[in-house]
Amino acid sequence: MPKINITDVILRDAHQSLLATRMRTEDMLPICPKLDAIGYWSLECWGGATFDACVRFLKEDPWERLRKLREALPNTRLQMLLRGQNLLGYRHYSDDVVRAFVHRAADNGMDVFRIFDALNDLRNLKTAIEATKAAEKHAQGTICYTVSPVHDVPGFVRMGKELAAMGCDSIAIKDMAGLLTPYVTAELVKALKDSVDLPLHLHSHATSGLADMCHLKAVENGCDTIDTAISSMAGGTSHPPTESMVAALRGTEHDTGLDLEAIQEIGMYFYQVRKKYHQFESEFTGVDTRVQVNQVPGGMISNLANQLKEQNAIDRMSAVLEEIPRVRKDLGYPPLVTPTSQIVGTQAVLNVLTEKRYQTITNEVKLYLQGRYGSAPAPVNPTLQQQAIGKEELIDCRPADLLKPELDRLTKDIGPLAGSDEDVLTFAMFPEIGRAFLEQRAAGTLQPEPLEAPKTATSEVKSAPTEFKINVHGETYHIKVTGAGHKEQAERHFYFTIDDIPEEVVVETLDELVLTGGTEGAVKKAIAGKRPKPSQPGHVTTSMPGNIVEVLVEEGDTVTAGQSVLVTEAMKMETEIQAPIDGTVTGVYVSKGDAVNPDEVLLEISA
């Protein structure tokens, strides 16, 4: 048999799974010559959450990262993860945007496009596959593996045949939650290889501790390429170790032919790099067999844990993990992968924290139930569907068929801030943070989040000096801010030194100046005074910590109970907040962009 190929995910999914996608390009480039010499089938280095993290947290241009990696890895295929019609965002884009994105990614150096849809609705892969083939690049059709009453091996084989008919160059089994077991893997791989004459790749996370065995069974049954991660960034919610799989297959008919010692040297490099990002390590990065029951991917567990901590409700984690399968059933058993993992997870958190299921329904759940993400794998809960969308018309066509071309509008909207087609596409993926990124770049104020904060704090000190001297009553003190708690917290911990003596204080925010992108030095004043605590029926609050996306009413407006008055965002999902009573808006305590918490009054309505 031909040797087994390796795709190493060290530059994308490994740090996405373990370090919240925070690895910077500066820590990738020095090791690229050694990675390039290994002889991998490909290196996964882009797509997934990397684009979002570059713009949102690292303040790096993701396109520039791609160009630098292309230059540094001249002998190795570069591979990305693409969410079909969702591209790298969280909604469906029009076909002209999808084609433009694929075209620019190919021109900037991408070779292999692993294309998937969260619902396994292959209609949502059509345009991305066509665009990849038009760019003369490798289109890898992807099957999202999951377990439910409506998912089985024959169904996945049918998908494989359809992907082959769509012109894919290879097929990937994407086991994003680590649900595969060794003997199911053997059955699935053999069935696909017997039915589809295309190279087969396996991508399986090690969350449940079974991925290494699944890889071996896959190889024995004809799988051509397996995904692995350098050992210092492997295991847990990441992937099987590259070195271990190379050693396991060495000297057999499945020998990878790769130099084990050379890979081990690379492993020591990333062992040191990982320490740099200790503050982003999740406590849920070890083996967790619960995934075989709740089917929650490791990265999703980390997000849920952070959200519950901000709510001071980490003790409700077990309840949320129990609620997720129930929400998933109500939504027709979607595979839990971006964006459906966020859609299901956020709704489950809301159901638990409000202690009343579906009292609050996110906008994304409403759109999902309407059919705007595609066709659910199984019938959805009809009562929930009626509650969420009322008399709105259900969609049964390919959702993108309803979208008008939008690239010209996006180009006009971002205007001169975009210096290239790539900039327009960055804005398209993430309008709010994309615009802020481009404004900050133009002003020369891009600043990545700091890495020196204590493990117990999240650095958010971005809008003020972090080292300075002050003079108080004739005495001069040297102040250095070393970290801060989440800016969303009303009572926030700040860490600093005064004349090199460490100090920690708790600050109760009453008023705050927030720096905005654009003209240097421009500031806007936050809402003055602390928001009141809810105590009356007309006090409008949120169920989860998040940010204000839109304020839909003004003071003096008349509203009716159930009318949408605010739109908030949490865990990248939007929720409309309704008026609790009929009446007149007598107080507005928030504006667009504000961070909010559940114990605050956002609007006041008087009967």
Automatic annotation (TrEMBL):
Gene Ontology molecular-function annotations: oxaloacetate decarboxylase activity; pyruvate carboxylase activity
Record-annotated Lipoyl-binding domain positions: 528-606
Domain Pyruvate carboxyltransferase: 4-264
Record's keyword terms, sorted: Biotin
GO cellular component terms attached to this protein's record: cytoplasm
Pfam families, per the entry: Biotin_lipoyl, HMGL-like, PYC_OADA
GO biological process, one term: sodium ion transport
Name used for this protein in its record: Sodium-extruding oxaloacetate decarboxylase subunit alpha
Gene behind this protein: oadA
